[in-house]
Amino acid sequence: MALIVMDYLQPHIIMRKGLIRGTEYPRFAQDIAEFLAQTLFATSALGAPAAEHKRRVAAFAPDVALCRITEDLVFTDPYRDAKLNRWTRPFLDDMAEAFRRDGPLKRAAQERKYQFVTRAEALIHGDLHTGSIMVTPASTKVIDPEFAFVGPMGFDVGAVLGNLLLAFFAQSGHEAAPGARDRYRAWVLDTIAEVWRCFEARFLDLWRMGGGEVLSPSLFDAPEDRAVLALSQARFMRGLFEDAAAFAGCKMIRRILGLAHVEDLESIADPARRAVSERRAPVLARELAPGAGTLLRHRRHHAGRPDDRGRDRVTGGESCPRQRVGTQTSIVPGDGLGRKLPKSLTAHPGPGPRSAPASSRARASSSGWKKRITGADGVSATTRVCTRAASGAAAAARRLAAASPASDPSR
Hints:
Blueprint: E1 13-14, H1 15-21, H2 28-42, H3 50-60, H4 64-75, H5 93-100, H6 103-118, E2 122-124, E3 133-136, E4 139-142, E5 149-151, H7 153-170, H8 182-209, H9 223-257, H10 263-266, H11 271-288, H12 293-302, E6 322-325, E7 328-331, H13 358-362, E8 369-374, E9 380-385, H14 387-390, H15 392-403
Helix pairs in contact: 2-8, 4-6, 7-8, 7-9, 7-11, 8-15, 9-11, 11-15, 12-15
């Protein structure tokens, strides 16, 4: 016997469309965090008996076709010359080629693919982007669970965070004038941080109530035992955050350089203007894909700073880890693994395939800067990028870092 339950979702709309319009959803962060915590905890070995968890894994294991779509489109195709790949040509040609040649990035994506294939942690939605969420300012509904299977918890969390980051970067293409959507951009970043904070708090609340047979609080009843369990929980949540950040990076890259794109960016009619937003997103994603180490470095270096106040050089909007050189701090584009990024990934995110020299970028003032760019068609254009927009990727990274779990207390 099969039972189908349907709900008439009115006046809900697809969340992605609301983000394009600049609509705020005050309940979204709390609602989606509750959904993620409840579904991921209850269907894991932390929240359910081991036998039930194993039966669930077996029930979803035969559905290999839809998983294969994700494995190819998210983790493999953007890093090879796949027939169905597409991007905004000619403006992102150099970035697409650089990502295909980026060995450390390909390794990071394949390590996450291995995790996606092998880590049966909980029943995940499998395609939890802002096109699979319907909202009103007072209500949130999740739809389209056809990709559901038992997989890594961080994949669903990362899908939500990654798509919100894409919406953040898309705002410059939808605003009527530069800076017109600064307030909304700030709301998106606040929402990203709030999603993680609410999710982490709710997940830990559920864990404290117990229900499963692994790391059950009932086993740690003595005061000294509870401290040991708290340490294990802190490590688990930090690992989950790092997984989510890495999966978010993979999801963002595939939406720019792979087959399926997002309406947030595709609805920007002018290709040159669209490319400005599209170029910034993968630069941050490139930092996220190897894991959250870069974010945690951002957190340490920006702790206690209310804003940048011109401390960061404007480098075309990329997120750059800070490296100590003697007593000075320098901004060095990196891959999160101690390597410099290819020059094409640190280029100014304008319509041309090349950027101004690094020395020119370093002289950018804190109020904004101008530069002449020659596009692939040989047409020159004068582009002004204000510091707030140009440092968008760095701002997003720092906001995520601020929401990230604290470093392992045992270290």
